[in-house]
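Support request, please re-run this one:
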Amino acid sequence: MAKRARTVTGNARLALGLLAFAAATPPLMAWQALALRAPFLDERRVPRLWHRMVTRLLGLRVHVHGSPAEARPLLIAANHVSWTDIMALGAAADVHFIAKAEVAGWPLFGRLAKLQRTVFIDRARPRRAGEQAGEIAARLARGEPMVLFPEGTTSDGNSVLPFKSTLFAAAQMAMGEERGAAIQPVAIVYTRLHGMPMSRRERMRAAWIGDQTLVPHLARLMREGGIDVEIHFGEPVAFGPGTDRKRMAREAEERVRAMMRAALRRTG
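Re-run finished. Output below.
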């Protein structure tokens, strides 16, 4: 009986969530399209509002510790567990994202990413690496905080994978010969399910790994609800013209790993 009640409740959550998403998303997309063309409108406002709406529909409770650094140029280096990381970070701060090129072709979500001025990286075309880094560098130089997921893929939410150093080159390009940049480590940690500490196995339910299909994962999260995610903004690290980007990638990785471990210890 209890299982049946949970199923009915979950299906009701899913149906209501999809209705709310369908009702709110098109007008917000239209408003954002206008904001990108009208200089008197703030193009950062709608993405943050949309991310906050989606986190609520998914049942994600976002807990923010710290804030984006004031320094510019600013590259945020975060671990990556799921597509929901973008919703949680976007709800927490006015930032822009760097995503794999495939995202641009996703139905609806690709269009949403473009409206949020996401920079798409095509790892299958290494010859374009300099051009892509240049685009990120130009955005950084204009003072826009950019979020990079340097693991290059998603993890199971229990550990941090090695950071790839390639796109840290964008921060070097943005700072020029005399100007420095800042790299801010950020840890995204899924900690509780319906108020109770998540086990390693339960944490993997929030993760989106490998070739999982987006829609079933989204539906499962909407049915389940009640997941707590913590966003930990670490102290920024100065990235000067002479700094080795591989060393910087390792340092950012170590700081993110330390913040994740501390958050999981506190959770129990």
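DSSP finds nine helices and nine strands in the chain. Residues 2-35 form the longest helix (34 residues).
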